[in-house]
Amino acid sequence: MSGSPDRILDGKALAQKMQDALQARIAKLQPQIGRQPGLAVLMVGDNPASAAYVGGKEKACAKVGIRSFGQHFPTDVTQEKLTTIIHELNADDRVDGILVQLPLPDGFDSVALLHEIAPHKDVDGLHALNLGKLVRGEPGLQSCTPAGVMRLLAEYQIAIGGQHAVVVGRSILVGKPLALMLLAADATVTIAHSRTPDLAAVCRQADILIAAVGRTQMITKEMVKPGAVVIDVGINRLTDPTTGKSRLVGDVDFEAVKEIASWITPVPGGVGAMTVTMLLENTVWSYANTHGLA
Question: Is 57 noted as a catalytic residue in this protein?
C-alpha cells in the first residue's frame, strides 16, 4: 500500500484532541481536589532548543489548566542547589510533576539529579523505579516520547501484536523504553544501532520501523519494506547552503519513504507534537493518582 495524505500519522491533531480531553478532565477534578495540577520544569543555561521546548511546555500547561512552577537557572548554578530545589518540590503538595530539561550543560550529573525526583512526580518516566515498573509491566509513569508513539499507533488502530518492530536507537529516553512498550503489546522487537551489521537489511525486515537516532534523513527508501509503518522520532535542523534558511527534518527521508510506507509520521507534526501532550497527561495522572482518582 503506497503512502498518501490519509496515511499520515497526524500527531498534531491527536495532541490537540488529547489536550482538549485533559482540559475537561482537569475541570472535573479540580473541584474535588481543591487546586490545579502543578508541573515544575527545571532548566539550566540558555540552550535555544531547550528554551523553545520549555516555552512550549509552559504554554501547553496554561492551555489545559496546569499551573507551572518552572524555574530557569544560570549555568553557574551548582548540582547541590538543584538537588535542594528538587527536594523542595518533592515536598510541595501543589506540585504533581517535576522534570529536569535535558541535556544539562557540561559538569552536571543528570542521572543523579533524576534519581532525586520522587518517583510519583517523575513525569519524564526516567527514574529507575519507573523504568523498573515498565520492565515488569506494572502501571506507573512512562517516558513521554515512547508513550506518545504508542498512543499514536493506537489512535490509528495500527496492529502491533505479531508484527516485527525494529527500533533504530537504544537511548534510555526513547529506544529502550519504546522497545519494552512494543514487547508488552506483543510485537517481536529488534533494537538496532550504529554498530548493527548491515543496518539496511535489518530495517527492511520491519513491519513497524522506528527511527530514533538523531541523524538527518538516515533512513532511506531502500531501507524500508514496502507497506511498513514508519515512525520518525528524530528532530534535526537542516540548513539550505544556498539560501541559509533552515527547516526541521527527521531521521527518515520523508518524501521518498512516504511513497512506499503504509503509514508514516511527518516532522514536524508527528511524534514531537505528542511528547509535550504525554508530559501533560503524566502530570494529570499523578495529580489524580495522589488523590485516589486515577
Answer: yes
